[in-house]
């Protein structure tokens, strides 16, 4: 019964991704056994490139890339990992209170910026199937330990995966399974705030 629920959950999630969440398809490609990578921010994402090398090509993630550079996290996110990154879009950063991004990007706020960014990173590679499996195993929610030491909570609703931060804010995964050479990115529509 548990395996059937996981299979149904994965099927619903992947169908939602293919139909409404920007995923280019759930078919398998190549010998890696991974789904074909979706376009992100108008750019192709390549599974043989690392997180940074792909992110710099997405027009939807220029703020995130600038923040990663300002925090000095480029080398970390280019390392072998693996990492799961919940990547907020430019719109997600723009939705923060006025002045927040500019304040975070100031050199004197580097520790705070680093904490916010590493809160979006979960060590290990958790694609959609692994996330759904963890959610199912957790009775409808999964607690994810972030690289910053905080926790995120993953749940599902209406075929979407939701990520809830320590402050109770909830982001929706809008593009899942963007495979990288050193992990996987899930695009999210909100910036997650650590406690």
Measured between the Cα atoms of the first and last residue, the distance is: 37 Å
Query: How many structural domains can be distinguished in the coordinates?
Result: 1
Q: In the CATH hierarchy, what is the architecture at level 2?
A: Roll
Extract low-pLDDT stretches. 1-33
Structural class: alpha+beta
H/E series: HEEEEHHHEHHHEHEEEEE
Rg computed from alpha carbons, rounded to a whole number of angstroms = 16 Å
Mean pLDDT: 81
* Number of helices, counting only DSSP H or I runs of 4 residues or more: 8
CATH topology tier name: FAS1 domain
Shape: globular
The neighbouring-strand order within the major sheet is 6-5-11-10-9-8-7
Total count of strands = 11
Fourth CATH level, the homologous superfamily: FAS1 domain
Fraction in beta strands: 25-35%
Helical content (DSSP H or I, runs of 4+): 25-40%
Instruction: Report the CATH C-level class.
Output: Mainly Beta
| Biggest sheet descriptor | 7 strands, mixed
């Amino acid at each position: 019964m548990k395996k059937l629920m996981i299979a149904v959950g994965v099927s619903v999630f992947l169908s939602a991704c293919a139909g409404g969440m920007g995923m280019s398809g759930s078919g398998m490609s190549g010998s890696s056994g991974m789904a074909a990578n979706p376009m992100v921010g108008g750019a192709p994402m390549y599974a043989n490139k690392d997180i940074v090398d792909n992110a710099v090509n997405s027009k939807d993630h220029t703020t995130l890339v600038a923040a990663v550079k300002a925090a000095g996290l480029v080398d970390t996110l280019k390392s072998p990992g693996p990492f799961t990154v919940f990547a907020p879009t430019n719109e997600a950063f723009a939705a923060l209170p006025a002045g927040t991004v500019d304040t975070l990007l100031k050199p004197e706020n580097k520790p705070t910026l680093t904490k916010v960014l590493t809160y979006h990173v979960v060590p290990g590679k958790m694609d959609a199937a692994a996330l759904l499996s963890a959610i199912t195993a957790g009775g409808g929610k999964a607690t994810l330990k972030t690289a910053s030491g905080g926790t995120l909570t993953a749940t599902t609703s209406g075929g979407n995966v939701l990520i809830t931060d320590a402050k109770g804010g909830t982001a929706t995964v809008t593009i899942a399974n963007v495979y990288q050479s050193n992990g996987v990115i899930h695009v999210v529509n909100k910036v997650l705030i650590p406690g």
